[in-house]
Amino acid sequence: MTEPSPLSQYRSAPSLDRVWTEDTLKYLHECEYEGERQPATVEGVAGVLNRSINETVEQLKRMRQAGLVTLQGSGVGMTDEGRNYARQVIRAHRLYETYLARMTEERPARWHRKADEAEHHISAEDVDALSQQLGHPRYDPHGDPIPTRTGELPVLTGMALDAAPDGAIVRVTHVGDEPEALGQALVDLGLAPGMLVKILAHEPDQLLVWVEGRECRLDPAAAALVRVVETDCQKLPRVARLSSLNEGQSATVVRLLASCTGSERTRMLDLGFVPPSHVSVELKSPMGSPIAYRVRNTLVALRPEQADQVVIETPAAEARS
What we know:
Layout: H1 18-34, H2 42-49, H3 53-65, E1 69-72, E2 75-78, H4 80-103, H5 108-118, H6 124-133, E3 159-160, E4 169-175, H7 180-189, E5 196-203, E6 206-211, E7 214-218, H8 220-223, E8 226-230, E9 240-241, E10 250-256, H9 262-270, E11 278-284, E12 291-295, E13 298-302, H10 304-307, E14 310-313
Antiparallel strand pairs: 1-2, 3-8, 4-5, 4-8, 5-6, 6-7, 9-14, 10-11, 10-14, 11-12, 12-13
Helix pairs in contact: 1-4, 2-3, 4-5, 4-6
């Protein structure tokens, strides 16, 4: 007989507001897991969940009675039961985001919000089925580890992008998506887990970085949402973006950006933008869009933002060293 999923045992306490309880535990887990925040407080929980102090205290008391949290003065912690419950909710969230990225045409900026809604309603059995359907992924599209069915989670490593020194070449492990406006800015730049990034300069109000053949400027608040690890790379690869080619120039496809996901990625691959395909610019529209490319003996029209998703190597491509 199959053992019941751990998530099933937590959602039956009649005295608890399920959504509020699960959002509280997720926040407490984030404070504990990231290890860089101050310990959670009643005031912090109330602020994140947009509730009054009195409401928050009463809810936390009920959660303590249910064996999910501990209270000491204004400090709030989790019990082992609370931590396991939190990780099952996080598992549902991150698996659902992975489903949206791989199987739907939903825009990346909406993945988090939709997963926030789904995590409270998807059943434990459906979570397990979704994991199996996706091939039991270890990480979600943002690079966040997905807790196992039994609540196991690897130790968080690395540092914030804005903490890396000038000249360092680092690899992105996680790209945050909250607040949504900052998350969208990172999506627009094409930042995604697995990318190599070089820190060019810390300027007063921005961070100048090299990302897959392009210089980019990041707001410090957005840069703080990107987590990276050090590498032993001394030079960056000689790559550029397909959109940088001029009419008559040609190149070799190296890869699609990791941020090119779902049906858009499938379409680009079907069109022939797979390594090491040869691609050339046949015609540029006077208005700049679309641009006609020849790839695998087929003429294909792409918008500039689509061509930005293709990383290429050309004789003229120069990497920063």
